[in-house]
Amino acid sequence: MPIAYRKKDRAVFLYGFAKSERGNVEKDELLSLREIGAEWLGADTREIAQALADRTIEAIENGKEEKE
Prior knowledge:
Layout: E1 3-6, E2 10-13, H1 27-42, H2 45-53, E3 60-61, E4 64-65
Antiparallel strand pairs: 1-2, 3-4
């Protein structure tokens, strides 16, 4: 399950799948996920707030979905 992570800043869960459904991500998928991860790690507070409002992304706090 690829995760983009910046120490003491943020972690972005990029893609999840059950290992029983498939093996690892393919090389081309990994390249795309790295690009997506870099974009989200580089996003500023305004961009993240807008993505949350648009439901493009979902916030998770301490392993639980954030309540609205």
